[in-house]
Amino acid sequence: MKKILFALALLSMGVCAWAAEKDASASGELPHKNSLEAKVYRGSIVFQYYCALCHGVNGDGNGRTARLYKPKPANLIMSDKNDAYKELIIRRGGEAIGRSSFMPPWGNELTDEQIADVVAFLRSIRSPTVEVK
Amino acid sequence: MISKQHTGILLFVTGLSVASVVQANEFEVTQKDKKFNHKALTVKVGDSVSFKNEDPFVHNIFSLSDIKTFDLGSYPQGQSKKVTFDKPGTVDIECAIHPEMKMTVEVKK
Known about the structure:
The complex is a heterodimer of chains A (about 130) and B (about 110).
Chain A: H1 2-27, H2 36-55, H3 83-92, H4 112-125
Helix pairs in contact in A: 2-4, 3-4
Chain B: H1 4-23, E1 26-32, E2 35-36, E3 40-44, E4 48-53, E5 59-65, E6 68-75, E7 80-84, E8 89-95, E9 102-108
Parallel strand pairs in B: 1-4, 3-9
Antiparallel strand pairs in B: 1-2, 4-7, 5-6, 5-8, 8-9
């Protein structure tokens, strides 16, 4: 009986090692264009280029220009706004929805895909403690 | 009762103020094809620069330079917003929507 259990344990270790190796090789591949991973990655690039100026490289609202504004740019890590709201404010700007006029409308500058990617990125950096409205 | 001497001083001071107002110039910088039409502009203290948007989309001109910090907000084609430079030095100017747009205003005494 002991021998059988030992053989099963060895087999199970072998299977785990094989699975780990397979994951490692898979991680070297590019994620599919429509995968969440790809969207978040592209969104992070767009965010750093266009949004970090005000919202900070970490999205915490402490960008280079933050000192110009009262109230400060939104802390996007702690934002409780849902994806639809974020898409709207990105596309139409703050003033159009009764928020800061210093949040520009990005609808003419960013493509639909870029906006969706930024929203995906923002979802990825949101604190798990935040309850989304 | 104002004496002749005081009247003279008053006129002199008024004349100086008028002279300084008259000497202030206004420049125009346009934004077209996501570019400023000047890479660098030299003005004098007291001069103004009007930033005119000639692109069919919004621009948002701002500066974080110590001698002149401002944000003109987003504004569309055909509109312009003015900034008066009241201290000497170099002012770096950018567009918040188009990070590649940059220029400097050199403010002389």
